[in-house]
Amino acid sequence: MRLTRPLAPVFIAATLGLGAQVATAQAAPAPGTNGTTEAAASGTAASIHRGKILSQTCAFCHGLPDYVIPYPSRHVPFVGGQHATYVISALHEYAQGDRAFATMKAQGASLTDRQIRDIAAYLASLGPETPISDEDVKAPPFAASCAACHGASGVSTNPMYPTLAGQHYDYLLLSLKEYKAGKRKNGIMNAMASPLTLEQMQQLAHYYSKQPSPLVLMPLQGPE
Ligand code: HEC
Ligand code: HEC
User: Fold this and answer.
1) How far is the CA of 109 from the centre of ligand 1 (A)?
2) pTM of the model
3) Is residue 220 part of a domain?
4) Count of structural domains within the chain
5) What is the pLDDT of residues 113-143, one digit of tens each?
6) What is the CATH number of the domain that holds 133?
């Protein structure tokens, strides 16, 4: 399934649905943990459960196979199985405007820090135990400079750095272009992307997109 047309009804339903859920979740008493990033990132059962409820509407985009979104056109990235620490920082970056994508800005801004940590713990808890293999693509030589943070095959061991392996090619390429142009703001990645040519970015995006990956689509949740 490849959805290239704008999905206005899904879009609006997702946004409205999220608003209602957030209101409910805020009304509920906060369970008695100290709510540190570490506690949530390490994934206590309670925070994973709250994160699952809070993120139902996220799956309208992040749970659809091959969902391509326009302006500029790219696949909605896989977020299931992504590192919690990175997801927390990504959602803050949208809210702060360091990353420009209006829908995600609204999603990030309408969530409390606590809710963001719960969602991140839930997303990190998804994913296969054994990474799924894909075709064998050799690393371009300049991928050596990425390995320290993202791992040789794009599965990062440090949770601050996103896993790239198995992510959509067009999303990875757009991210690199936006870092190079300074449109997506991150000191490390702006510096890493600035010397790359378009061809090198294409090769890197191709390489990582084909590596065995722990990333998965979010499951679409039915009524419990
Ligand atoms: C309308 C579709 C849509 C909805 C709903 C949506 N997202 Fe997204 N999300 C996107 C797109 C498209 C991107 C990539 C934007 C970009 O290029 O920066 C994205 C990016 C992200 C990223 C960054 C991924 C990365 O690798 O950097 C995270 C994390 C994320 N979304 C989580 C969520 C969560 C959590 C929710 C629900 C609270 C949500 N999204 C709801 C479409 C959506
Ligand atoms: C010193 C550590 C470091 C090195 C080296 C590094 N990165 Fe990154 N990378 C990061 C961090 C941190 C982020 C998250 C930045 C953000 O929040 O936007 C990131 C994000 C990315 C993303 C966006 C992923 C997503 O899910 O949105 C891509 C693509 C990427 N890096 C590719 C590369 C490539 C290709 C190289 C080598 C040329 C490289 N990186 C080298 C730290 C690094």
Assistant:
1) 12
2) 0.84
3) no
4) 1
5) 999 999 999 999 998 877 777 678 899 999 9
6) 1.10.760.10
